[in-house]
Each structure stands twice: as C-alpha cells, then as structure tokens.
Amino acid sequence: MENREPVDLPHAAQDVTEHVGYRLKRAHAALRGALDQVLRGHGLTVPQYSCLELLALRPGLSNAELARGAFVTRQSMNVVLRGLQDAGLIARPATADHGRARPARLTPEGRRRLDAARSAVYAVETRMIAAVPSARLPALLADLERMAEALGG
Asked: What is the pTM of this model?
C-alpha cells in the first residue's frame, strides 16, 4: 500500500462535484449540448457558428486568428473553413497575397445563415443566464474573466 501525503483542497468541498472546475465543465457541457442541438437545425456546428460570428465582427481574419477566437486548433479551423467555403458561406482568395494567410469573409448566404442561427443561439444563452439573478450577472462575468486570466487565457 502506498503512503500518500494529504493534498490541500483549493476550497471547502465535500467531493469533486463541488469544485469550481467541475462546475465550470458541467456548465460548459450543458451549453455545448444545447448549442449543438439548436445549430443542427441550421446546418451548422458550434465551431462553424463561432467562425461566422468572428468573421461578421472582423472580416478578413486569418486561419490562426479564427482558431484562437473559436478555441480550436489551426488544423481544426482549416477543416471548418473548408466546410464553410464548400457550403458557400465564406469566401477566401485561392492564393495568399503575402505569406500564407488567406483572409476569409462572409458571403451573403453566410450572413443570412448566421442571422438565422443567431436568434437560436441567443435563446440558449438567455435560457442559461435566466438562472442567474440579473444583479449578479456583471459580477459573474467579471469573475469568469479573472479566472481565465489567472490561468493565462
């Protein structure tokens, strides 16, 4: 039998299900499942939707910038971009003007699909944040931001 040193808990918790990380992961999984469900009806995945939202906000982003913004690898974003381009939702130049970047832009069909999907996505977020008293939402958002920054994100 191995002799183990006791480990200090990060905060008072009876078991792992009371840890902040566990609760964040549970909320993320629930959010992802709800988004997958509503986006399926629009023929989009969560990474595709994220990519469309980012391009609507900042047209011309590179693959690397889109990958960072959508929390996927550059290789995964290549697959996302190819799928969006094949579906006629984005346009990219066939070759790069300089370097390897091929900036992407929404097509009119991409804008239409994004607009249609956005209301479904926002309805999911509305349902989620309805569980938090509105007076506490700004503090929750600030706390989540500080947690991400504390971990280098």
From this structure: 0.84
